[in-house]
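Translate sequence into structure tokens.
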Amino acid sequence: MNTKYFNFEKQRPRLSRREAIRRTLFTASGLVLADHLAFSAFALPKTARAKAVIQIWMSGGPSHLDTFDPKPEAGAEYSGSLIKPIETNVTGIRISELMPVLAKQADKYSLIRSMTHGNNGHETAAYIVQTGRQPGGRVVFPCVGAVASLFKGYDAGYKGLIPPYVVLTEPQGRFDEAGFLGSRYRPFATGGNPSVTPFAVEGIVAPGITELRQKNRRELLHQLDALAQTMPMDPQIAATTKAENQAYDMILGDGAKVFDLSQEKQELRDRYGKTKFGQSCLVARRLVESGIPYVTINCGGWDTHKENFQAMRRLLPDLDNGIGTLLQDLAARGLLDSTIVWCGGEFGRTPKVQWEAPWNGGRGHWGKVFSSLIAGGGFKGGQIIGASDAKGEEVKERPVYPVDVLGSIYAQLGIDPAAKLPNPEGLPLRVMPTPEDGIKSGGLLKEIMAA
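Result follows.
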């Protein structure tokens, strides 16, 4: 039992019989009310529309005004040097001038411009976005990737060589936390850099060791393992041999092939971009194509307190090539209908630019309103959900809370929102929170969820 997530030192106060009955009734009514509030307006699909999720996590918090919710009419105090947003292939939708590839794909994705939670701390805001819960409670809840791993991974009959939840390339704190589910549901973080050949995936591709040398090592191991040769039917030896075969399948077999980008056409690799992020998007496509249910791509650098606009000119073209080509590639392969692509960070940035020193055109943290992109897996494209006000400072209409996005993703994956989450204390914890948990909700994204 992992005591990191529970405080066993404090004894719970003993409840009277009347209080116990009251809490039981309140809990039951809360569950019914939760179902009514969150799901009565939209019939959940009887079967899963999505098989996989690719999450692009813009760690640090991207500016909504400089990406998916431009406000040039607000003036230079707010839009800075990015004053020419471009029209997309969907009439009425404009995005940053630095994202022309995505502008041609707007019919494939929808933008949520009224995301909100009001929290301005990196780790706490990331926890809210990734779990739908408020931080600081008695337990640490699992993030969306860990929940998907629980319901779409080994416990659901997943047989893949690669773990069902993969992070490209390094985990970054609480956003990938398995919480009380435990280490079994943590992601497999690849490490390495997919733009470097070969892509040295930690635990699969050993840096500096060729495939031939790895095969020779295996042959030598077999030659020296006299016990396995004389007792091949022994149950323990058979189990060890099976584990060895699975490990080498990862190193030399199909597991390693998934990460081998040399199998892709150079023209496609160039379209994704010859960068760590661009090639991570290509690896993510190969992973979901091989049956991995949940992939997160870490795309950091968005904490632009200083020189925000210089950073945007570095970051946005890379983001644009990667996501824009990913959507095209998934669609061309018939995978977009079954793959959710979800892009966003923990919050937005201050709408008003901080021109004074030492920020020199920077933007601070802003949890009041921010934007996300969502596509595929049963979500309609070419639409806008919600709106911020004229300066991007507040939600103007249709607030969308993290729990609404997560609940919608779970619904498309066919994950029951009332399903219980196993935990060491046997608490009645569920995939989706209830009103008694004090979580604000604007409802599922029924506007873009295919009937």
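Note: The two ends are 42 Å apart (CA to CA).
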